[in-house]
Amino acid sequence: MFKPLDDFIQQQAWLETAAGPLQAWINDTFSRAGGAGKTTKNLLNGTWLGHPLHPVVTDVPIGAWICTFVLDTLAGMSDSSELRTAADITLATGLAASISAAGTGWTDWSDTYGKDRKVGLLHGLTMVTAVVTYTVALVTRLSGARRAGVILSNTGLAVASAGAYLGGDQVFDLGYGVNRTAYHQGPSDFVPVLSESELETNQPTKVDADGRAVMLIKQGGQVFAMDDTCVHAGCSLSGGRIEGRSIICPCHGSQYELDSGSVINGPATRPEPTLSVRLRNGMIEVKGE
Ligand code: FES
Q1: What is the average pLDDT score of the chain?
Q2: Cα(11) to centroid(ligand 1), Å
Q3: Which of 37, 121, 165, 221 has the highest count of CB atoms within 10 angstroms of its CB?
Q4: Would the CB of 251 count as within 6 Å of ligand 1?
């Protein structure tokens, strides 16, 4: 991020003050809704899609509003009422699509922490400002004050662009939403990591497999191995809780099947990498895919 902007954001203590209660309110709302809340959160996170949903749906309002800008510019040059109408339609389309962008964005943000949480909150508030500006712009246009409406929508595009910059920074600079195991590989052949007798049943245990942190779990005489780093935000899964044939991450509650690593509940959207396991001479050996 542009350094003076980064410094400015870090000086904004109010962002941290506001973030805690807001995150608690969002998460409490999902929790109070029970199973329906969990299903809704999985839907908004993109767990069902295998990819975060927010960056997918944000393309619609941003694209629509860029069309509004282009159509307004062309309408200004040609004095075409059809182009003016088309510009209003794309503006309204962007506003309608911003509902799903907001729902997915605030849901993702509710599981952030640290610097990511501050930048994310500013990103969200900036986008809310853009939506309010566009709403006023649409009302102003429809009431006949065309010129003022166009100025307002152009202002909205500038605000939304600033918000998009902050959102992009969250991913490309701070790493929000990236697969935290993307570069984890190997070992390419089986390596011994722990003696069989040392692994207790239903006790997640972290071991080192040629430099890769791996979690072992023994259940029903079978040993499962998966990467110890949670794909969502990097927490250690060996600090998690077992539920049936699954492990629940201690940080934000992502739940993975032990045998396949498939995501049962988010916020994770990708499967947790698993490793092959074999038992040799009283030792547990693992191998990466
Ligand atoms: S780090 Fe967020 S669910 Fe595991």
Answers
A1: 95
A2: 27
A3: 121
A4: yes
83 lines ligand 1 (CB under 6 A): no
Residue 179 placed within a domain: no
| pLDDT of 190 higher than 90 | yes
CATH number at residue 240: 2.102.10.10
Residue 59, domain member (yes or no):
yes
Q: How many domains does the chain have?
A: 2
Residue 252: CB within 6 Å of ligand 1?
A: yes
Range of the domain at 195: 191-287
Q: Are residues 101 and 56 in the same domain?
A: yes
Q: Are residues 158 and 282 in the same domain?
A: no
pLDDT digits (tens, 9 = 90+) for 69-96: 999 999 999 989 999 999 999 999 999 9
Cβ of 233 closer than 6 Å to ligand 1, yes or no, is yes
- Residue 250 has φ and ψ, to the nearest 5°, of -70, -15
HSE value, Cβ hemisphere, 13 Å, CA-based, for 231: 26
Does pTM surpass 0.85? Answer: yes
Examine residue 156 and state whether it is found in any structural domain, yes or no.
Answer: yes
Interior/surface letters 228-263, b for 16+ CB within 10 angstroms, e for the rest: bbbbbbebbbbebeeeeebbbbbbbbbbbbbeebeb
Q: Which residue lies with its CA nearest to atom 1 of ligand 1? A: 233
